Amino acid sequence: MRWIFYFSLLIRTFAANNRVCSKCKFYVPAIYNEKYDIGSYLGRCSKFTEVDKSSQSVVYRFAAKARCNEFECGSEGKYFANDTSGGENTIGLV
Length: 94
Fold this sequence. Notes:
single chain
């Protein structure tokens, strides 16, 4: 249960910054049952990808992991780019 508290603090820290992942053009929202957004903490980042070794498919990294890794986006959001589409990102569903 303690990890939930620390994770929520981590999310609040990122939300206080102007560079919020959910406002970035690389952000892919986590969608459940093709219509319910289940929260920005499960969203993914299309800027950083991994290749699944078993299926050889491309998997987007969790946005929270990219923000925790200083070699990727980091806590300051190095690769943040404003979403100018005016709405939902159209990259695809996770």
